[in-house]
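User: I'm putting together a small comparison set for a docking exercise, and I want a reference complex before I start. The sequence is below, and the ligand is PMV. Could you produce the 3D structure with the ligand included, as structure tokens?
Assistant: Of course. I'll restate your input first, then give the structure tokens for the complex.
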Amino acid sequence: MREQDFIPVGYKKSVQSGKVTWQSPSNIALVKYWGKKENQIPANPSVSFTLKNCKTITTLEFQKKETRGEDFDFELFFEGNKKDDFKPKITKFFERIEKYSPFLKDYKLIIQTENTFPHSSGIASSASGMSALALCLMSLEKQLNPELTEDYFLKKASFLARLGSGSACRSIEGELIEWGKHESTAGSSDLFGIKYPYKVHEVFKTYQDTILLVDKGQKQVSSTLGHNLMHGHPFAEARFEQAHANLEKLQVVFETGNLPDFINIVESEALSLHAMMMSSEPYFILMKPNTLEIINKIWQYRETTGVPVCFTLDAGANVHVLYPEEHKEEVLAFIKNELVAYCEKGQYICDSIGKGAEKL
Ligand code: PMV
């Protein structure tokens, strides 16, 4: 599918008003997206586990206006409270998608949103938030054009979510989602995420992700700024090639369930992502001392017990601890005994691989 295929050629129905609710999960990348071209086109392909418990629930109410507005007309509520400081981000999102969702200015919109994870937990809500909103908009588009196919609906939801926040395009479906053109993945696209199309070993279908909240504060450097620092970065080309190669290697791992290789690729990706941050100009560090303490504890534990547990990182200090479900009990005991001490207020979130967004 091409970009033009997402521009509607008129609507078949007229819809006066309505209300729709979607819940959409967060996701955790195994091969990281870091660096982008214009319009949120990724500089390299990425693949992620869709999560199950960390979700945003968004309700969109729409009321057709007598005359089409000059500007976007919407109100935004977060956990029941009016949130005008989120409005610029949503306005920017609407500006980016107006070409593909030209009905936007025909309606007065009320957006109500809440997260299942604690606010300011340092967990990025942009992936779950933007994907939930994109799905609500697609539900309205589906009412305007009832013959939209399921496949088009999901691809366009991912396409729109991408324009809100790149990684959000990986939060529409589960369980493994790939985004970005990759030579060895049929159907892969820079425009939207696709369900990983090849064989996936049983072990990955119930993988666990326990998120250790090391630092719940505001990020010092936004991911937008971080992506931009990959322009002119001395290691950019090598990093993009590495991501392609790691995705290639992961295909074998997904099929065979080879956990030592999985661990090696996933941890290397996490550290490469942070190495890019530490070697950009200006340079910055998002890990905290406790992030490193935790990483070392995980390495020690894996070495002494042989339990295949590993870590990955987002653009922040929190640590995602990844492990197969069959080791859940012992890993949770290890986390409680040895890692919780490094978490801010002892907080962590138990999550696992999920099946994607749901209409409520
Ligand atoms: O979607 P953004 O622009 O917030 O970028 C997310 C980047 C990482 O989380 C660091 C990696 C990824 O692929 O999710």
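The pocket of PMV is lined by residues 29, 32-34, 46, 124, 126, 165-167, 223, 227, 273, 314-315 (CB under 6 Å). The chain has eight helices and 14 strands.
User: Thanks, that's exactly what I needed.
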